[in-house]
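For the sake of transparency, this paper describes our internal protein records without simplification. Because each token names a local backbone shape, the row as a whole describes the fold. One such record is reproduced below, unchanged from the form in which we store it.
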Amino acid sequence: MECDVFSPCALGAVVNDDTLKRFKCKIIAGAANNQLKEPRHGTILEENGILYALDFVISGGGVMNIVDEFGIGGYNRERAFARVSRIYDKLMKVFEAARSKGHLYVPSSGTPDRGTDTQSRKD
């Protein structure tokens, strides 16, 4: 799989023992849930220098859009798009927090730190 960005968007567990040795990409970023079959696969991606964009951060736009339907005054497209547009900044904060701990995106245990982006719960 030679590419710049590999984007799994349908099936989970696509990062596994069989696929890890075939990845020839710089980034894995997709909307599929649970892309890592096992937490240790995140550690292996990191060791191989592959940046993994946490699926639960980058795939939040759909949920944010639906949540806006229940906002004051009903759905507001501009408000929903404003929330969704902040996903990039949130992901950059996750990467910055990981780098400050000496990692690309995950703590040394290989388990994504869902608490890193505390701001997402406030939006």
